[in-house]
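step=predict obj=ShKT domain-containing protein n=790
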Amino acid sequence: MSAVKLEKKVAALERRLQNEMRFMVQPLAQKIDHIEEKLRRLDDILPGKLALAEQPEPMERAEAEPAEKPGGYLVPGTVPVVPTVVHPEGVGFAKWKEEVNDLEGEGAIDEEPIPFAETVWNLSLVLGHSRAGWLDLTIACLLTVLGTLMQVFFIAVITTESFLGESMEEQVEAARHWRAGSAHDVKYMDLALTSLVSRVCNADGALILSTGQAELIEEINQFLGIDAGDFQLAMVPPGIVLCTLCIMLWCVVLSGELRAIGISIVAAAQIPRSGTTVVRNGSFLSISYLRFSVYLLFRLARTAVAISLMYAGTQWLARTTNITDLILNAVALEAILQIDEMIFTMLFPKRVQAAIYELEPVKVRFTRRWGQLESCLVGCLFVVVVLAPFISWVLPLADSMLAVKSEYCDGNRDFVVSLNQDMQMYMGFRSVPLESDNVSDSTLGQVAVAEHSKGSLSNGSARYISFSLDLDSFELSRVRSMKEAAEQFAFCLDYDQWAVKGPTLLENYGSYFRSAAFHLGRSEATSCSELSQWCNVLDARLLRLVCPRTCGCADPRALPWYKVPSQGCPQACRDEANAIAGNLECKDANTTENWHDFWDLYPTVMSSLVGVDMLSTPSGQKILALIHMMKSIGCLGIFILGSRDPISQADWCEGSERYFAPLALVCPDTCGCLSESRPAYCPASCRGCGDAPNFPPSSAATNCEEAKLLGICSIPTEAEQLCAETCGLCNGTNSSNMSNTSAAPCFDGDVPGAFGFNCSTLQVNGWCPMLIAFNSPASKVCSKTCGLCT
């Protein structure tokens, strides 16, 4: 505060104190004059006694004097007593005191000096009655208009939707679109296999996407005082409480402003009005009607601004969702309210300021009833302006916040989807939940990046990352399928044997083995034998690629499941298995453990194929019957069931490119490999079944013995066609193609005795319903027994 302003304030305070002292002393003087008047009248009635009573006596003499006697005399040894004064009309001091007390009762009138505020709104009171020049007055008028316009513009901006932002009701629809759109997209799943929505709703600090949604949910949790997994209001929501308090504080400030405006209007109304304004030493002796009207208009304008600020500020506070911004917004509103006073203090011309400083307070008379009425009005106004926003805005805001959070985070968050454009279907995957105590390095991706980010990025140095030499190779590696990788694997060796081939192989593909071991939860493994128990797991494709021999990829009679390139078995191993099968006898193998394991895994593999637990479907019992039959009768079940798998429609003998190797390597006889029309998937040992009876006339030999001497056995095609038996290409006996068996629809056909079963066997074991459901040819051979005759 400047020295000049301080001096003005001190002078104004001194004048105010003088006026207040004069105001307080004046009633006392009137009472004293009234008492003196009564005493004079009493002296006229009782001459001499009053003068005697009024003479001061020393304390010693007062003690020696006798006590007061009737008639006004003093009794020795007593203190002088003021005589009872009797009013000429018979009214004493007691009655007079009662009259005075009546003036201080319900109808008592108090006069309080009301000063004029130091603000631009009082400019109309000093125009023409200050020592300021016309330029100062012009600037003062322009500043008054400027201050008003600034407050109006602030109000206009605060009430716009662009400033207040999107309401919580509108956020509900936005949350619904986000949840149904990108929240569960597999593209936004992180290396920990956690969905985007799970990370957003659990306040993952590592987010680089949807940070706006995460901040909004965090604001809602803080505002409502709830945890990430809660969807109910807390007992004492801190945001609602603080918002209500800020609104209450703002309403208190505006109520005080409105009260000051009302009192100033009452004070101005106390000034006598006339045709001209008369001001003497800062006091209004009279005020003109025009000036009073302008002053009243200014007061009404100030009232409109205050009410507008109350509405705009309350709405702004009620729409503030960030709990830390509530108090800052309340302070900002206070600054907007004080714009006129700041302009007056900092920019107003000094002459005009001095004239407003010098305005003397106006005495306003207040009765006790008026004070109580004012208190009731102010209290009711305060309750209304606080309760109305609380009911209309604050409580609905809390409900909208809960609705927004429910749309963002309620329900199942732990899954992702991806569009299969070719099938025009969305495929889903159950993602990993994001828990508060989740370990940061829990997946292969996280471990690989965390481990390598601390070391060198040179090619081949990473434990779990396979680096490419150039960008093209990197792009190809990103889209390469397991089948392509297995077909390009040019060797059939376990990881344990890679070191024999040189350090290059181990350096380039060592990350494959370590990644496979990590996937299986055995990151400390150093050899294929430690991981052999997982070879027949569907998700162990990478293990079969790096440990093909341990997993049986080169064994033609091994468990057929997953012994295909698309499941990790290298093509080099499959070629080796076919070569070994060519040296085995061309007949069905015995029902071994691998055969039983094959059918035990059948429902698991088929469930992964169709995406549904097959045993829980209505066909579950039929599938169990199929497994029982195939384990009971071995390779013969392929003939009974039919050439194709009823679920995947893959040919049993040819195998499935996706799931299992050809069963013709295990059951060549049943698969018709000994017939004249041998399929290409049959083992090499089933190529021929005897020598040709006649040789071509142009041939140099007339029989196989002569042809063998001429080297026909070294020509595979001619040896198979002409001299298969002589060249040792026959390892079995001729057999008719059992798949060609047919029967009439209304009686049982003839079942060859070599099969080891008859139609009654199918009926006794309860296999007929299963064979009929899977459209087996055996059900047609045994049409009558299986109940197919009509």
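step=describe
The chain is about 50% helix and 5% strand.
step=end
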